[in-house]
Predict the 3D structure of the following.
Amino acid sequence: MTRVTVTVDGTQYTDDVEPRMLLVQYLRETLGKVGTVIGCDTSSCGACTVHLDGQSVKSCSVLAVQADGREVTTIEGLATDGQLHPVQQAFHENHALQCGFCTPGMIMQSVALLKDNPNPSEADVRHNLEGNLCRCTGYQNIVKAVQAAAGGAQ
Ligand code: FES
Ligand code: FES
């Protein structure tokens, strides 16, 4: 076992983990942060996307030990004082989800995009979300939501 100290959604945790444990497993199984979901386990779907020191990563492709000493933000850490993050609000208002399984990853990826590019074109949004798969929506309303959130998401 290896000891890790990770700050997740503003709270610091110290735990002993197996060196092979994935970050997504640590978040879900050790910390109970089940808002971050596993859609494939093969780095293909993006459902497990979180921010690691502000950069979006697929948490099924990162080991928990690699997060030692670092800061993780999950979908559960986006809202502040009961207020949805502007990207969450925009997904809600633009009907950008159906089953919702892809939504945590879509939103985390979109938040990272808007930090880098506050005014993305439709092509920019589609390009940025190409690692996040949705089986339900056809993507149209997801793109609309991200563009609607642009400008208000910093
Ligand atoms: Fe991580 Fe699909 S569960 S990319
Ligand atoms: Fe169902 Fe995207 S809303 S997978």
